[in-house]
Design goal:
The chain has a domain at about 30-90. The chain has 6 helices and no strands. It has helices at about 5-25, 35, 45-50, 50-55, 60-75, 85-90. α4 (about 50-55) runs antiparallel to α5.
């Protein structure tokens, strides 16, 4: 009752093929929703007062804002957000 390696490799291969197809078709990661969608706390608060903002913002579940805030804190201000690799790995 182990993991079927062939099934796992098939899923990984399909995942990689779909991302290569999307890249070839010109689809790229878009980080602009972070700055305009109402599900996210203000970017300044996410970057500077993450825990306090998560504690007091109860309009949406906090994990999405936690993930976005951690990504903002981990990326340098001059570079694009570090969310590109993580979102690509998660398939979003």
């Amino acid at each position: 009752m182990g993991i079927d390696r062939r099934a796992v490799l098939t899923v990984v291969a399909l995942y990689a093929a779909s991302h290569m197809l999307y890249w070839w078709l010109g689809m790229r990661f878009d980080a602009s929703p972070l700055f305009g969608y109402m599900q996210f706390i203000d970017v300044g608060l996410l970057a500077n007062r993450l825990l306090e903002s998560l504690w007091y913002y109860h309009a949406n579940p906090p994990l999405l804002n936690l993930f976005a805030g951690v990504r903002l804190r981990c990326s340098a201000p001059a570079r694009p957000p570090s969310s590109v690799p993580s979102s690509t790995c998660w398939g979003s």
